[in-house]
Amino acid sequence: MSYSIIGSGAIGGALAKRFAAAGIKASIANSRGPDSLADIVSQSNGTVTAVPLDEALAADVVIIAVPFDAVQDAVATAGSWDGRIVVDATNAIKFPEFKPADLGGRASTDIVSETVPGARVVKAFNTIPAAILASEPKEAAASRVVFFSGNDPAARKEVGSLISSLGFAPIDLGTIAQSLHLQQFGSPLVGPSFLKQA
Q1: Fold of 3-197
Q2: In the list 81, 101, 116, 154, which could disulfide-bond 94, CB 3.0-4.6 Å?
Q3: How many CB atoms lie within 10 A of CB 160?
């Protein structure tokens, strides 16, 4: 299974740290090219490698960690998704107000799904602030929780396994519709950091 992170901002950088700490190989890409990722790569002990965007978009599991409004441009050059997994780590935020964007009652992940036709999309890694996401997920006998949801049960299982391998405690919220008022920006689970006892 190959993993990639699209985006090198706060969330993308935090995820790269967690992949490196867990010893799970991943590639990372952004719109500025591999040379701009030298700092992230140098801190990963060879676990995370910088690649061109097209190469990262071809991974088995592609984690999208760019601003919500930039998703369409970020995936524009992707080939056929053919059932590959896309992890939506974005939040639909209206700036500068820092409020939920008006999506007409739709889930932001449903909109992301339209940009990656044929992919199995799972929402994850969007509820925890980046600084906390980057930090050690274990505290004594507890693990930091990562909530996830998606319409494909097998894809949810695969992402849940990845979350666990990264050291977090995965909690499955079900389908995108079931998680709409829990996991979308402005919902109760976005912002707080939860711990699950072993």
Answers
A1: Rossmann fold (3.40.50)
A2: 101
A3: 19
